[in-house]
Design goal:
With 170 residues, this protein is of the alpha/beta class. It has a single domain, classed as Rossmann fold. Helices cover 25% and strands 34% of the residues. The protein is built from five helices and ten strands; from the N terminus they run E-E-H-H-E-H-E-E-E-E-H-E-H-E-E. Strands 3, 4, 7, 8, 9 and 10 form a six-stranded parallel beta sheet that branches. Strands 1-2 form a two-stranded antiparallel sheet. The protein has a two-stranded antiparallel ribbon with strand order 5-6. Helix 3 links the parallel strand 3 and strand 4. The longest helix has 12 residues. 37% of the residues are buried. The structure holds adenosine monophosphate. The site of adenosine monophosphate (AMP) has 19 residues, from strand 2, strand 7 and helix 4. The site of adenosine monophosphate has 19 residues, from strand 2, strand 7 and helix 4.
């Protein structure tokens, strides 16, 4: 199966000049989701993982599935003001703007082994903010895991020295 056919390109969304990678066709196809999960779990199945942390909002879909498959807990990282308990925050730059992400202060215990997941690795700002939050909580980053990487934006470099894995590369 070619997963690329389930990723829809939307020109100029959410603003002019951005080619948006829409994963809703993939999410709507159970065979594609299954294939995707098999790829995302590469190198992870034989590792001890305590938490999978997903970035709001499109990171939630596969982060939750990955956590379930790995027998790990799921941790949501959300936009400011969305999480009800006390939070730590980290600011970051997007391909289209700047933003802040928050995580609950008790979401990860010191020494826990963590996988970071988001749908798209673009400039790497979002994932770097997640890495900062995980380390602030004392977690150990095992892998930064993405459905796809926009390699021309060099986000991978920003995530050095963490291992980066993305089955689809554009
Ligand atoms: P970045 O922080 O630049 O790596 O951007 C990653 C975040 O922005 C992810 O949460 C993506 O969902 C979203 N994103 C950035 N660029 C795109 C794109 N071209 N298509 C879809 N989502 C994107």
């Amino acid at each position: 199966m070619t997963l690329n056919q389930y990723i829809r390109d939307i020109q100029d969304f959410p603003k002019p000049g951005i080619l948006f990678k829409d994963i809703t066709p993939l999410l709507g196809n159970p065979a594609a989701v299954k294939e995707c999960m098999a790829l995302l779990l590469n190198n992870l199945r034989d590792q001890k993982i305590d938490k999978v942390i997903g970035a709001e909002s499109r990171g939630f879909f596969f982060a939750t599935l990955l956590a379930y498959e790995l027998g790990a807990g799921f941790v949501p990282v959300r936009k400011p003001g969305k999480l009800p308990y006390s939070t730590f925050s980290a600011s970051y730059e997007l391909e289209y703007g700047t933003d802040t992400m928050e995580v609950h202060t008790d979401a990860i215990k010191p020494g826990e082994r963590v996988v970071i997941h988001d749908d798209v690795l673009a400039t790497g700002g979002t994932a770097k903010a997640l890495c900062q939050l995980v380390e602030q909580l004392g977690g150990v980053i095992v892998q930064c895991n993405f459905l796809m990487e926009l390699s021309f934006l060099n986000g991978r470099e920003k995530l050095t020295p963490y291992p980066v894995y993305a089955p689809l590369v554009y």
